[in-house]
Amino acid sequence: MTQFTTKQIRNVTLVSHSAAGKTSLVESMLFTAKAMPRIGRVEDHTTVSDYEPEEHKRLTSLQLSVVPVTWKEHKINVLDTPAYADFSGETASALRVADAAVLVVAAPAGVEVGTEMVWKQLQALKMPTLVFVTKMDKDHADFMRSLEQARAKLGQHCAAVTLPVGAEKAFSGVISVLGDQARDGAGQARERLAEMVAETDDALTEKFLGTGDLTDDEIANGLRVGVRACGAVPVLAGSAVTGAGIPELLDAIVSLLPSPADVAPTRAAKNGEPVTLPADPKGPLAALVFKTSADPFVGRLSYFRVYSGTLRGNSEVFNSTHHSSERIAQVTAPMGKAQHTVGEVAAGDIGTLAKLTHVLTGDTLTTKAEPIVLPGIEFPTPIYSVAVHPKSKADMDKLSTALARLTEEDPTLRISRDQATGELIVTGLGDTHVEVMAERAKRKFGVDLELAPPKVPYRETITKPATIEHKHKKQSGGHGQYGHVVLRLEPARRGAGFKFVNQVVGGAVPKEYVPAVEKGIQKAMEEGAFAGFHVTDIKVALTDGSSHPVDSSGQSFELAGAAALKHGVQLAQPALLEPVMRVRIALPDEAMGAVVGDLNTRRAHIVGMTPGNGMGTIEATLPQVEAQQYSTKLRALTQGRGRMTIEFDHYGEVPANLTQKIVEARQKDAVKV
Ligand SMILES: Nc1nc2c(ncn2[C@@H]2O[C@H](COP(=O)(O)OP(=O)(O)OP(=O)(O)O)[C@@H](O)[C@H]2O)c(=O)[nH]1
Ligand SMILES: [Mg+2]
75, 111, 455, 512: least buried by Cβ within 10 Å? Predict the structure, then answer.
């Protein structure tokens, strides 16, 4: 297999709005580079990048794929990403290990919501970017409109470097704005490009102001510098279906985008001290694991990028994140689903390793002698919860292994057990995300799952004091039972939980039976007094009672305590409490009204609204029953631009008009079990 120097490598991620054409572009690149005999199609399930059945079913990418393309003695590691927000964890991994990006825009649609959102991420990362306006062969394809939108929404430093030939329906290819190819009509684009490049460098500015022009070489060199400094964004035209414009795109990736040796040295830590690492194959080994896939047959596959040094087969590496050593047998290079054996992977390049035991996404592979730790990957926080129920006993047995494997490969999935309801909860980034999780559980691990909205862990409490007397008495021959208590119940401060005090005087209830009374009360609180939910925020005083010398026992007083509590709660104007979440929503200013309006129909309490520069924030508290799957609604109300975080805030009273419904639903549930 050809060896590439670090300078000959390009790690480039494709990002865009959903369905703009990234996966198809990978196909066209492979075909143009003669790596594939034909262009695969998403609709035919024949692409290199979308190889999972769940992707075929939805005709969309759901995971990050690594596809190397060799072009003019360069190796371009293309990182194809899913644009759908539910899978933004995959994009986070790609953005972490890429050195540059191609922002794909579909010519018929132009710059869309998703284009702008991912552009903001690229800007925050200061990632050198090219814009590729694809689907030029389609109806309504309009390159100039897309270019204008790019300037308006992404920035004035966007300029065309190739132009489409032939208007709509007659698209026949592209020409370069520079060089001999440039013909009539490219003059204006060339001027615009020269102007943009001039703005990136003082000497070029001076020359441009003086002569009104720059040479092709000055523009080409200035462009390279400008792109790498994020001061210039070249815009190219083409079609993944016809292949027009793809050679120009590959050329631009090689000539304009940085190699791992051109980007700033990597910041890392060694023995707790900060270090910077140039991309030197002879340097100390430091590789970041950026993706893990769990395959039932191949086992765990770890994708890594080497930042320094060389990772060789038949060697030992040290996982500095989990402090464990790993024996490396074979090193492979990914090509979509396939892996090809290579002897080593040097600084700047990407490889895969099979069957590592303790290595997870975000870990650093290094040596024990020079244990380096690389910065990990920031993943979005899961916000959409479902309860998972295995369909059969056999599924139950396999469940925990399957979920453990699935969370290994997807750091944006979180598994928890709700202490109050006992349900197993999977939290992901959205409804499609958890659906796909269930499909993978079935396909990969043979576990059949039923997904349902999580039960809300309501609680019961009281709103006014009450005194209750209860006599538990069974004296019908044989050993009788006798326990008699008087309890005073008082509402406690929200969140105070339970407090029991013994206020019996004169031994009305013998001391030895008092703990039994408390035990009975606590048991009853767990069972619930009127709806089957835990009782909380209550103060109970044992104020009086009586006993029988023979028939009284701990058990009789436990039963008396329990019955008294349940009856007492009913007399104390009981209420239901529900978990209330704090949500922070980032959304476009123009969607604020609609979202606030919608939140108000969901019993939200708006804590704050801060309009921003186009993107504002809303802070609110929202009942869990409304919040736990709110991300789907938010996405609809904001055209996919809204983002939210969610965390528990407090327990609040459920309005009386809803209480009855909840109690009835609970009783129905109880009958079912
Ligand atoms: N006519 C035409 N259709 C294209 C072109 N590129 C992509 N398509 C079609 O557009 C649709 C979406 O293409 P994909 O390649 O899956 O887009 P994507 O950006 O990978 O989409 P996600 O993975 O969902 O984010 C598919 O139906 C493709 O066949 C193109 O250049 N011309
Ligand atoms: Mg795709």
Answer: 512
How far is CA 412 from each of CA 89, 107, 408, 427, 430, rounded to the nearest angstrom?
6, 32, 10, 8, 10
> Separation of 216 CA from ligand 1 center, angstroms?
34
For the stretch 634-659, pLDDT in tens is 999 998 888 899 999 999 999 999 99
Q: Which ligand sits closest to the CA of 104?
A: 1
| Local structure of residue 110 (DSSP, 8 states) | B
Per-domain residue ranges of the chain: 6-179+232-256, 266-373, 385-452, 460-572, 576-658
Looking at domain 385-452, its CATH class is alpha beta
622 sits in which H/E element: strand 615-623
Task: Provide CATH code, domain 460-572.
Answer: 3.30.230.10
- Cβ–ligand 1 distance for 239 under 6 Å, the answer yes
Query: Which residue CA neighbors atom 32 of ligand 1 most closely?
Result: 135
User: Ligand 2 centroid to 252 CA: how many Å?
Assistant: 22
For domain 266-373, the question of CATH label 2.40.440.10 is answered with no
DSSP E strands: which ranges in 492-596? 498-502, 534-535, 538-546, 574-588
Q: Which among 298, 357, 650 is positioned nearest to 496, based on CA atoms?
A: 650
- What local confidence, expressed as pLDDT, does residue 183 receive? 52
Closest ligand 1 atom to residue 60 Cα is 24
Which pLDDT score, from 0 to 100, does residue 367 have?
A: 96
Q: Which atom of ligand 1 sits closest to the CA of residue 14?
A: 19
**Tokens matching residue 556:** 């009789």
Q: Which residues contact 301 (CB under 8 A, 6 or more apart)?
A: 292, 293, 294, 295, 339, 352, 353, 354
CA–CA separation, 418 and 426 (whole Å): 10
Tens-digit pLDDT profile for residues 351-396: 999 999 899 999 999 999 999 999 999 999 999 999 999 999 999 9
Each residue of 458-513: pLDDT tens digit? Answer: 999 999 999 999 999 887 767 789 999 999 999 999 999 999 999 999 999 999 99
Retrieve residue 375's tokens: 């910065």
- 64 in ligand 1 pocket by Cβ < 6 Å? no
Please tell me if the domain spanning 385-452 has the same topology as the one spanning 576-658: yes
Per CATH, is 576-658 categorized as 3.30.70.240? yes
Q: Could you tell me which of 543, 552, 488, 555 has the C-alpha nearest to residue 519?
A: 555
Tell me the per-residue pLDDT of 95-150, one tens digit each, with 9 for 90 and over.
999 999 999 999 999 999 999 999 999 999 999 999 999 999 999 999 999 999 99
Of 623, 524, 628, 526, nearest in space to 577 by CA: 623
Residue 81 CB less than 6 A away from ligand 1: no
Cβ 25 vs Cβ 42: under 8 Å: no
Tokens of 245: 């414009």
Question: How far does residue 42's CA lie from ligand 2's centre (Å)?
Answer: 8
Q: Give buried/exposed letters for 445-481 (b at 16+ CB in 10 A, else e).
A: bebebeeeebbbbbbbbbeeebbbebebeeeeeeeeb
Ligand 1 atom nearest to CA at 26: 15
Give yes or no for residue 316 having a pLDDT over 60: yes
Q: Is 15 in the pocket of ligand 1 (CB under 6 A)?
A: no
CATH of domain 6-179+232-256: 3.40.50.300
CA of 80 to the centre of ligand 2 (A): 7
Task: Write the residue with the smallest CA distance to atom 9 of ligand 1.
Answer: 21
